[in-house]
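Title: [Solved] Phosphotransferase 3D structure

Original question kept below for reference.
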Amino acid sequence: LISGCRHHDRGRQGDCSPHQGEILPPHQHFRSFTPKQALLLQSFSKFCLCSLTMSGLLGSMADVPKDLLAEVKKLEEQFTVPTEKLKQISKHFISELEKGLSVDGGSIPMNPTWVMSFPDGYETGTYLALDMGGTNLRVCEITLTDVKSEFDIIQSKYRMPEELKTGQSDELWEYIADCLAQFIETHHPDHPQSQKIPLGFTFSYPATQNYIDEGILQRWTKGFDIAGVEGQNVVPFLEAALAARNVPIKLSALINDTTGTLIASAYTDTKMKIGCIFGTGCNAAYMENCGSIPKLAHMNLPPDTPMAINCEWGAFDNEHKVLPRTPYDIIIDKDSPRPGQQAFEKMIAGLYLGEIFRLVLVDLHDNKAVHIFENQDIAKLRKAYTLDSSFLSAIEDDPFENLQETSDLFLSKLNLKATRPELELIRRLAELIGTRAARLSACGVAAICMKKGYESCHVGADGSVFNKYPHFKARGAQALREILDWPAKTSTKEEDPIEILAAEDGSGVGAALIAALTLKRVQQGNMAGILNPENFK
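Solution (posted by the thread starter after getting help):
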């Protein structure tokens, strides 16, 4: 029984073995036992761990043929990012952030959002938030209470019909207006038409914002392809549909989900200085001083006025100066809908991790000097983007010494029967790709912290990769420690000076808070970045 277990975090950089004498929680050792059985086995395992470590885990690559071992070594050289490289990337990242804020601009857009303050926790009132995703439409009512940093939320989800995503523009906005009308009818049937509820609209598609209540769609993503919207301000479309139905709503702010993540996280934690998304894509937002944004100099804003910047940092290093791209990264870029763009995102975002993994395996199979999946049909593996980041997550999460779950996964998903040596290579490859993504993601966080002089702060992060990918948080934290040269911890309870923590609901609570902050500053006479002042009366 005991020899069937496997150390749960085999993915530390450059370390495939457990710490000597480390006993893991019972659920990590024994997935198929009851808690009582697991505890009994765990107590027994204390006596066997030493021999288990020597005979089992440390020797797990011993039976791997030389051709596969040589490939593992090559892959480790290609995908491992050492400390000095992380520091070089972070330094270049700072200069690219600065360039994006300049008049001429750069690869990283660094979009001003017209969110001009952090919440203080004392905001009050009732606001609506509309989150327009690729699969669902979410409508939230957020009540900011009299208790500091507390809120109540009511929310409803509506399916986004696939036919609307490629239909007529009017049909999309009418459907959204119908959902908002239904929400108000359900929760406030007697709400007077004359009292319009302020709305924060989370529109997470590339958009130009010259004002906080404007969003000019640059291009559709997430499966949308509706003619006549790209290059247009989307706000009047929604407002016209709401007006036609007499829905008592006024749009106060259009936001990106990353900016919402920053503001929502800062509402409940005053140490929050950066908001990040590590999911299907990647992005960050932080608060800059207007005096440090040359491209806003013509606005004559007070230099110490804060301005949230939506970095759109997936475009970092589009010039390919510092990121350690492998041949597989180059293929992904070449075959993507937008070659030469989103270089950083293509190395760390969930959309691409599974594809990098797939390309490596296909390459190994097609290499005559390497013997992998011999005499098997790899047709399913040859299909582009057939594997997503959850596939790699499952491999890294496999707790068994014989990698049984990984074996089952390959059989069910790809119709491939992997040998034990092949499974070892598969596991190591997943670790290398996942670890590289986490370590590179830390470069962006470190760059903002160094640029702003943050020696101690919290970073709010959201997204499927951050929340669900095994060891992503720990690997990112370790990379941050290396880049910023922190001294070794004196105890396990000691916190890192800069911590990346789970964020609050950016697209819901964040949107409502930004609507509240915008109304508040307009009432104080700050009309910067307001297109329609009548919506704020």
